[in-house]
C-alpha cells in the first residue's frame, strides 16, 4: 500500500541474540545466588561469590581467545552460544575471509610472475638506488647470462660487464639502447629499455633483435650491391651517349638530349644510394677541425654558380667558431641544403646562409630561402628516402629525393640535428644544429684569412 512505511523484519541478528542470552544467564546466576543465599541466611557473600565466579569465567575466556590470536592459531567454528562464542565466530569468519583474499592475491601474483617468466624477452626487476637485481625471468638467463639464485642481489652492471650498458644506465637510460652484444652466441644482439615502474624499482627489458638487425643488414647490402652493379653499365651507356653528336643526326637531337638527361639522373641516384650505404655502415667519422670561413666561401661560390644571377645570395658568419667534424661530409650536407634552396626558389628570390652561435651553446648553420615553402604535413617525412613534396617539381629540378636523407645521416654521425621550419608561400629554413662538443674556437690565422 502506498504511503505505509515498511517495518523492519523481526529477524534478530546472532550478535543481538548472544547478548540477550548472556544477559539472561547473568540474571539467572544473580537470582540463583540470592535465592541460595537467602536460604542459607548469607545472601550478600553468596552474591559476591557468584559475581566473582562470572568475572573469572569471562577473564578465562578472554585469555583463551587472545592467546589463540597471539599464536596466530586457526580458530575453529564455535560450538556454544553467548558473546564469547559469537566473538570466536566473528574472528573465525574474518580469518577465513583473509585466507581467501590472500589465496586470490597469491594466485594473481603467481599468474603475473608466470606470464613474465614465459616472456621471450628478458625481464629484470632492479632496485632503483643501486640497480641490484631483485628478480628476473628465464629468458634473462639465456639472453643476459644471469643465473638463479646466485645473481639475485648483485649489481646489474657488474654482471653484464659492458661499458656501453654501464654508461647508458648511469646517464639515466632515457632512450632505448640498441645493438648490445648478448651472452652466448656471437651474433646475439639485444635492445634494452629501462622503465621506472615504482619509486623503489625499475624494470629492465632486453629483447633479441638479431634477426631484425640481420634483415636491416641484408637490405643495406642489397641496395649497396645493386647500386654498385648498376654503376658500370650506366657509365658505359653514358659514354656511348656522349659519343653521339646531335648535329650528326638532327632528327634524333631531342631524343638524345632526353636520354642523356635520364642517364645522368640514374647515375646521380646510384651515386646518392652508394653515399647513403657508406654513411649507414659507419658508427663514426674521422674528425678534424673544419674551417668554416673557407667552407662558407665555397658554399657561396657553389650557390652563385648554380643560381647564375637569378637569386640574391647572402652569407652571414657571426659564430666565430669552427666545427669539429668530417670536412668532406659536412661540405656535402651543407651544399645539399644550399643546392635545394637554389633549385626550389624561383628567380628573384633570396637565399641566406647563416652560421651563428646557439643560445644554449653550440652553433647553427641555417639555409634560409624565400621559395615556395613546404606544407606542415610533409615536414616530418622530408628526410625519408625518395620522399618528395611534389614529384614533378623535384624531377624538373634534377633532384633524386635522397639529398635530405644524406644530410640527416651526416648530421647523425656528428650528433647534430636537422631542424626544418617552413611556411607555404613564404619560404623555408633548414638548420643544422651542432652541440658545443663539435665546436672549436676559431684560430687567429683563420680569422685573419677570412677578414
Ligand atoms: P630532392 O633531390 O628531390 O631535392 P631532397 O631529399 O633534397 O630531394 O628533398 C626532399 C624534398 O623536400 C624535395 O623533393 C622538395 O620537395 C623538398 N624541399 C627540399 N628543400 C626544399 C626547399 N628549400 N624549398 C622547398 N622544398 C624543398
What is the CATH C-level name of the largest domain? Answer: Alpha Beta
Helix content: 40-55%
Task: Kindly name the structural category.
Answer: alpha+beta
Beta-strand level of the residues, as a percent range?
Answer: 15-25%
Give every kind of bound small molecule, once each.
adenosine-5'-diphosphate
How many separate domains make up the residues?
4
Largest sheet: 5 strands, antiparallel
Task: Give the CATH superfamily of the largest domain.
Answer: Histidine kinase-like ATPase, C-terminal domain
In terms of quaternary structure, what is this? single chain
SSE arrangement, N to C: HHHEEHHHEEEHHEHEEHEEHHEEEH
Give me the number of helical elements: 13
What is Rg? Answer: 42 Å
Q: pLDDT under 50 segments (min length 5)?
A: none
Mean pLDDT: 89
CATH architectural designation of the largest domain: 2-Layer Sandwich
Ends: how far apart? Answer: 106 Å
Q: How many DSSP-defined strands?
A: 13
Spatial ordering of strands, largest sheet: 2-1-5-4-3
- Per CATH, what is the topology of the largest domain? Heat Shock Protein 90
- What spatial form do the alpha-carbon principal axes imply? elongated
